[in-house]
Amino acid sequence: MPERTRYEEGTPCWVDLSSTDPGAAKAYYTALFGWEFDDMPTPDGGTYSMATLRGGSVAAIGGQPPGTPADAPSIWNTYLATDDADAATAKVAPAGGELIMGPVDIGQSGRMAFLTDPTGAVAGLWQAGEHIGATLVNEPGTVIWNELITPDPDKALAFYQAVVGLSSSTSDLPGGPYTVLKVREAQVGGCTTPRMPQVPTHWHVYFAVEDTDATAAKSTASGGGVMVEPFDVPAVGRMTVLRDPTGAAFSVMTGESA
């Protein structure tokens, strides 16, 4: 379903980019996906730019939070929906994670927190107010998948089960075991181990596109690059790993039926 009006507890509901150069990032993603932006001031004097496409909210781009180390890279953040941010964050430490920030109210938009899971991945929690998260998904230029990449899936999955109720099922695929994350039996994301030793533990974001190869070429032409050349995944589609001009990594994919 491309249009969303609510998210079940545990479902990835929003992504935003913490960028070393928001202006360059906005120009790049406009060229790549056709996003338009609505800039909103933040309490710290910065700007949080809401990305829209065909009238729907799809993502956001902002600067790095105050206190971020100077050498910290740009990164895409994934937020998991929660019905009660305070109750969820109270479970973080007992489940082996660490609360980084919050929970804190973001005006009337919602209530937010950030955590680190026991394997080192950072995730946001979002309790919806006026902002539910992305209102348009699973269409070209919008988020289609969120994937936890971790060296210890069992430890990470036990944590997210305890904090936001995510369940999972694992299958053996040609590239190795792959775990699908579920909410009420609906597939909402994935989990896998790093395919290369230099890949950090993180939540990875996938955007849908009409043509993976053309998007990879456009990434380079727009000041970004290609980290992994386009490849096919049987019964899934064609994908590639890209980087924006500020170094943030993400993937795009064209579904097999597209």
From TrEMBL:
Boundaries of every VOC domain copy: 11-128, 142-255
Superkingdom classification of source: Bacteria
Stretch forming the signal peptide: none
InterPro entries: Anthracycline_SecMetBiosynth, Glyas_Bleomycin-R_OHBP_Dase, Glyas_Fos-R_dOase_dom, VOC_core
Pfam families found in the cross-reference section: Glyoxalase (PF00903)
Name of this protein: VOC domain-containing protein
Taxonomic classification: Bacteria, Bacillati, Actinomycetota, Actinomycetes, Mycobacteriales
